[in-house]
Amino acid sequence: xxxxxxxxxxxxxxxxxxxxxxxxxxxxxxxxxxxxxxxxxxxxxxxxxxxxxxxxxxxxxxxxxxxxxxxxxxxxxxxxxxxxxxxxxxxxxxxxxxxxxxxxxxxxxxxxxxxxxxxxxxxxxxxxxxxxxxxxxxxxxxxxxxxxxxxxxxxxxxxxxxxxxxxxxxxxxxxxxxxxxxxxxxxxxxxxxxxxxxxxxxxxxxxxxxxxxxxxxxxxxxxxxxxxxxxxxxxxxxxxxxxxxxxxxxxxxxxxxxxxxxxxxxxxxxxxxxxxxxxxxxxxxxxxxxxxxxxxxxxxxxxxxxxxxxxxxxxxxxxxxxxx
Length: 324
What we know:
- By secondary structure, the chain is of the alpha+beta class.
- It has 2 domains: about 1-210 and about 290-320, no CATH class; about 215-290, no CATH class.
- Helices cover about 70% and strands about 10% of the residues.
- It has helices at about 1-10, 10-40, 45, 55-70, 75-80, 80-100, 100-105, 110-145, 155-160, 160-185, 185-210, 250-260, 265-280, 295-320; strands at about 215-220, 235-245, 250, 280-290.
- The protein starts with a helix and ends with a helix.
């Protein structure tokens, strides 16, 4: 049964291998290109403080940022890899269900349960294998193209971490299979899979993720020292504003009316901060600290894996219990 399942997927496998290999080749080109630019901008001569501001080193640094920015534009497309894999793994089974040829197998020596388990098991196994390879490439891409703290709430960094990638991959396949066994029409299934996957990703990213844990709220009185208002590192800022003495939220226009900017240079900034203090303003911000990144990734991975289990269960039940 496993060999038969593989033979039925050979066309999709050939297409998938070709696409995946091409994508990996492009990613390796980008990684090598950015790494070479980074090494040139940070070699021994330019890493020395005395030479860091030389025209040659500045030119190399600019070349690195331009190159990493260009290749970084590809990152958005990488988030669609689990969806493409899911479609390729599902299309063969979907065509059988649409044409009704699965009934022929069920009338032979292959039971509904065995047929269903072989199809679902094959999809889970292949999608997990692809996800493992994809994780290795994504981590290399992240460390080269998206240089910076690994524990970051930046969407590109967060979404390319190992745990959530496994969750995304299995959820996409489970969603495609559940849609296939229920709807059994190619175009509607593809539309439902794409809309369901993208919609779920949007909801989890912008609605659920900020609230996996209760955000920290912090209020600090305005001070002439600007340091406490610029320490945003290692934080995911969810909200920020100025408050009056009584706790009323003020718009930036209102703050600028109270403390208009005038003059120039250091004097301007000093007078501006002193005006904030004289008016008793308080700076309010809501954030998630970076020490929660790994915890948030595990929570999100668990959510997607749980959804995948539910969808696979629905698909299996529908195949084995509903009329053929």
